[in-house]
Predict the structure.
Amino acid sequence: MMKLSVLGTLGSLILLCSSLLAARKPQTIEVVSQVVYQQPRVSVFANSLHYRDLPMINYWTIIVLNKENWDEAVLKYKANTVTAFTLPHLDQTFLNGPWLQKAGDWEAKHTIAHEAGHLICKCNGENEANKVADKLLK
Ligand SMILES: [Zn+2]
């Protein structure tokens, strides 16, 4: 528990500093994880994207779901995916925890960038989101 709160404090400090440097980066990226070890990983990836002057939202919530809740969420929101999906009207992204635990770093980071792409283009198009993701990863 001690380690987690130290990480959380460090995370907030890093977030605060970097938000001063990049004006269009989300002011807050809140990551909640129901599976072990993925919270700091997702937080690092989401914070390391190159938002530059892209019109990203200010408060982005990313939730890493366990298998039971992922299965339920996919049904509830009729999401046709095994990796992640974003609800633009709620500024929320859901990640499939069991998939994320097996995904390599590049794949995980690209998926997070793709979801940020949906929030930036404010669209559901996969090609548009990928185009934005390319910019975020460069
Ligand atoms: Zn997509």
Notes: The two ends are 35 Å apart (CA to CA). Residues 114, 118, 126, 129 surround zinc ion (CB under 6 Å).
